[in-house]
Amino acid sequence: MTVIAVVPGDGIGPEVTDEAVKVLDELQLGLDFDHLDAVNATTFQTTGTGLSPSDFERIRSARSVLFGAIGAPGINNSEYGRGVLIKMRFALDLYVNHRPAFLWDARLSPLRDDRRRNVDCVIVRENSEGLYVGVGGRVRADTPDEIAIDEEINTYHGVSRVLDYAFSIARRSVCLVDKSNAVPNGGRLWQRCWRDAVEGRPDIDCSHLYVDAAAMKLIADPSAFDVIVTNNSYGDILSDLTAQLAGGLGMAASANLNPKTGFGVYEPVHGSAPDIAGQGRANPVGAILSAALLCEGIGLGKAAAAIRAAVSSALAAGRCTPDIGGSLSTREAGAAIRAELR
Ligand code: NAI
Ligand code: MG
Question: What range(s) does the Isopropylmalate dehydrogenase-like domain occupy (predicted)?
Answer without folding.
Answer: 3-337
